[in-house]
Amino acid sequence: MRHLSSLLIVVVAFTGAVSQTRKSDSVASISGYAAAIERITNSKSKHRIFADVSSGYENGPEAWKEFRSERERTKAESGDNMNQIASVWSKNGKVVVTKLSLTSPSGDWVHFINYYYREDGTLAKTQAQLNTFYGDVSVLRELYFQTSGKVIRSTTRYLDLKTKKPIRKPAEFFDQEVPVYKTVSELPFAKLL
Hints:
By secondary structure, this protein is α+β, with helices and mostly antiparallel strands. The chain has one domain. 24% of the residues lie in helices and 34% in strands. The longest helix is centred in the first third of the chain and has 23 residues.
């Protein structure tokens, strides 16, 4: 009888944990979490700045560097480098928001991508905006992730670059893939964190 009651306690505890995981992996809970930690980025809270200082015209390896301020980063710009810039916010010592800006060396497109991480380091949501002169389009994308890394929702909207009104995907549109870093340790500058 004692073994049966112990087994019942384990089953109830496991069921509760699975239910809690599913609840925290819902689109609504992820949206709420992302909105809450987004407020950190809108405040005057301290964040870290990283940039790839390698030339965007080279096919060589990326060379990420941390900067003490935006002013210091701007001074290090040569016009051929820093096609990837990241701002990183932490909560309780854990990275929770990374805002990445990617651009082509020619400036024909720019991609703004926000990564919202749970305190365990797993990706909860990405929110991306690609602005490109290839088709004069702005593409808005959101991806929601379970703690396992599985995508549970994906949305894409196309807007006219100038009017910001919804449009169909243009035929001559040249898309840029959203890089997905499912954990903080996968970020291209993770060694510097």
